[in-house]
């Protein structure tokens, strides 16, 4: 599976001196990643007319379409960001992954008022110290919050008159949502999830599309767990699978990440992160009602539900390596039954069809 954005993704020569003001004056430049070792941000120049809001994964289009790279010292980012108009409203979309988050990004982009980016990776790189033990940063909480603010300001570059900036994060960002609340206390927060069994099946299929086997050895099992839980301690698996076994079916490693994420969400909600929780099951089965509630939460006109519904007419990830058209093995009924038995051991989230509370119901 692809790692987070990195300065190593480009082979750079010594380059020539350039005015960082270009990132303010030319919308073809967009923030790609942070290079913490050299205390700089890397921007990429994209072809004229490129609209990152139409990308299934913004980081992927940035990497594939990049024509030039501009290095800007951290010390200059605040002044550059201050020259870019702020969004009137910020919407932050967190999720457990494989639950319609890219679809929701497309839904919001149906509205002229919204500029939504799906997985701009500068945020992931900013928080990577929490995902990857190889990178430890000595930033204060205030420095982290400021970089979140700067990234948000610099990435809000709509080609039109949108006043709402929405960002759909990678699923790992769920575990740092409180940092985004601290940086933007007035933002609208969304959490997307789905029932445990269909979620496990979707992740089971996704890992195959990334080339993983359906039976995992110890090292690969740890890697999958780390990806699903932002490098959290794999000891969490012990009540659910035999961690001493040489090989384990991949779905049995995947499933425990579901209650793990439900726990994290519940703790954040209790700490005051103002989530609206939307389950993919209802989003897909009761589309108009779900979108009405979603738009209302975001402060967007509910009269545009019909326009937003048009996003359901296409595969949100078409053209990528995880598109629906790519066929792989699905979980069978025996595997699903085993997963239900495993989940039944959890003290709080034993029900695979759990409905989460949020600010409107808790």
How does the SSE layout of this entry go?
Layout: H1 22-25, E1 29-35, E2 40-45, H2 58-65, E3 68-73, H3 77-82, E4 89-95, H4 101-109, E5 114-118, H5 122-126, H6 141-155, E6 164-168, H7 177-183, E7 188-193, H8 196-209, E8 215-217, H9 218-229, E9 247-249, H10 250-254, H11 257-271, E10 275-279, H12 280-285, H13 287-297, H14 305-308, H15 333-343
Parallel strand pairs: 4-6, 4-7, 5-6, 7-10
Antiparallel strand pairs: 1-2, 2-3, 8-9
Low-confidence sequence ranges: 132-136
Please identify the structural class as seen in this structure.
alpha/beta
**Mind telling me the C-alpha Rg?**
20 Å
Overall pLDDT score? 92
| Portion in beta strands | 5-15%
Can you describe what's shown?
By secondary structure, this protein is of the alpha/beta class. It has a domain at 196-259 and 327-343. The protein is built from 15 helices and 10 strands. The chain has a 5-stranded parallel sheet, sandwiched between helices. Strands 1-2-3 form a 3-stranded antiparallel sheet. A two-stranded antiparallel ribbon has the order 8-9. Strand 1 and strand 2 (40-45) form a beta hairpin. Helix 6 (141-155) crosses helix 7 (177-183). The radius of gyration is 20 Å and the shape is globular. Mean pLDDT is 92; it is low at 132-136.
